[in-house]
Design a protein that fits this description.
With 167 residues, this protein is mainly α. It has ten helices and two strands.
Length: 167
Amino acid sequence: MLKVLFRDHVTTGRLSEISSTMELLNHLVVLDHLNANKIAILHDTISITKHLGVQRKIKERLSSFSDVKEGTTLKHFTNHRQNVMKFGMKLTPDAVKKIGGFYNKKYTDRWSMITDLENMNQIFDGDMKDFIELLKSLKLHRALNALLEGIPHFFKENRWLSKFDTI
């Protein structure tokens, strides 16, 4: 999950080498995305992942760590990255199986599938018309709506559609 979240902050090659959360956090320190005076990225991470237990653990060690509030504007992750995370959280094992079947692949989990789809440029910040059509054909509407959240329109068959149009 965190590898998908931090994809825009850490190079893909380096991400593939990272094998633990601590290793990822240490690399964010090296990149100066995180340090003792720069912890906002942790707030954004907790807000997106909904891992409030992490917040409690941090507060045990750093009492000044403020509570993560629902609906806070996130500064460290693009709207696209936030939508990819929401998309991933909506995917069921059956949905992962259906999408994987289309690509003739068996994925161990939704996050490795998303990483692979991003590497194949099926999921990216731009016109994902083909992938949107795939999700529609597989009737994965909840996941599709999460991926398109906040995007008022997308282009289909020579006309702009709202995400609320019949898809």
